[in-house]
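Lecture 7, part 2: worked example. A protein chain together with nicotinamide-adenine-dinucleotide.
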Amino acid sequence: MKRILITGGAGFIGSHLCQRLLNEGNEVLCLDNYFTGSKKNIKQLIDNPYFELIRHDVTAPFFAEVDEIYNLACPASPIHYQYNPIKTVKTSVMGAINMLGLAKRIKARILQASTSEVYGDPNIHPQPESYWGNVNPVGIRSCYDEGKRCAETLFTDYHHQNGVRIKIIRIFNTYGPNMHPNDGRVVSNFIVQALRGEDITIYGDGSQTRSFQYVDDLLEGMIRMMASGDDVTGPVNLGNPVEFSILELAEKIIELCGSNSGISFLPLPQDDPIQRKPDISFAGEILNGWKPQVELEAGLEKTILYFDKLLKEEI
Ligand code: NAD
Ligand code: UDP
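Predicted complex, written out as structure tokens:
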């Protein structure tokens, strides 16, 4: 049995990871400040004797004896990370320093949840890990993008300077149950709007693209990455390479929800990437042939069921 710390464990991805690592027979410490996460996501775990919940902010030092750390704490939706941009930078940078300091002291393995946002608005398509990105350092997305880039730097330097056993994954747009209904990201927004019969809000003309990964596929990649040899540090892309335009996504969700929602077109936010699609050949090589298994339609159906139940409970 391993003892595993998950920062941001009450969030969307973190809550799935807590459940899966408990199912696999580990002891899980879930650390969160509940900025975008919720106890509701992990309420079914509270009575498990191998699960521990800790209210803590990663910008402050933390100490515990664990074997592995998954560092997920950071708001991930543009509306939430832009709400207090200075705090977002602090969460990524000070959070990384605090967790790396802990990993160094207790000799734990540590995995950083980095992001496809490190590629910015990419001018290479699809994006391989060797691409350095096209990021605006002074725009509205910079607090997130540059915070995550600096965290990657810190991870790399703790590895080189102090021998900390690091793992960096770059997550591409991931969706699934446990996203907050007010999360603000595209999949949850569109599903909630379609289920409520409200207009679907497309920013821009909907021709921008994203590649959507179902959360179970990401978890498989994350866990394989953590289990890989010490020489495998990443960064490695984890995403589903099937690319859709945002307009196609809207149409698919309207159809799957059997909704009569219309579409309203709103202005495209500043620095919104035009296209995004992961090159996952490196992930396949180092993670025993890992590749996503869940197609968009199947993943959306599960996510729609989740939101449908949630919205009915709210009424
Ligand atoms: P989320 O907002 O649901 O989860 C983030 C969690 O971190 C929340 O529970 C939040 O309360 C917690 N948190 C935020 N600031 C904190 C702080 N200072 N101290 C302690 N806890 C804090 O988002 P998510 O989609 O689950 O994202 C999890 C991680 O994965 C994030 O680091 C995010 O950047 C990364 N990521 C996610 C995606 C995606 O598509 N979902 C893509 C790229 C990267
Ligand atoms: N988007 C949209 N309507 C929404 C929410 C998002 O058209 O209600 C667009 C957004 O402008 C972006 C894409 O969908 O082009 C993905 O947005 P999201 O915030 O989910 O993730 P990110 O931009 O960080 O990839």
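The pocket of nicotinamide-adenine-dinucleotide (ligand 1) is lined by residues 7-8, 10-14, 32-37, 57-59, 72-76, 91, 113, 115, 171, 173-174 (CB under 6 Å). The chain has a mean pLDDT of 97. Keep this in mind for problem set question 3.
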